[in-house]
């Protein structure tokens, strides 16, 4: 029995759908295929058994997010008649995000703008608390 993932080698774009295929050959009956990202099973996969009887094919319509960058995508093939014989093919996902760097920068900039105000409030609260005029 053999299993292979195709379509996950290219860099993927965050929030854009990509079709990834897993194919298993040499199993009778045809292997049951499941998808995994790191240790979590992916449920949204379509399964198709090719007509020759010993080939299984599963397609995954993946819409990766930025946090999927570096995650491991696996396709696991199992023969229902042979217990504990699962084999898998895995690919490390490369997910690019066109605006993610800008969004992170803007979030950091927001904190830089808010931080002085927070420090002034904390200083005022601490000095008022030490005089007994303010309670938090």
UniProtKB/TrEMBL annotation:
The keyword Disulfide bond applies. It holds the Pfam family C2-set_2. Keywords: Disulfide bond, Membrane, Transmembrane, Transmembrane helix. Residues 1-94 form the Ig-like domain. The chain crosses the membrane at residues 101-124. InterPro entries: CD80_C2-set, Ig-like_dom, Ig-like_dom_sf, Ig-like_fold. This is Ig-like domain-containing protein.
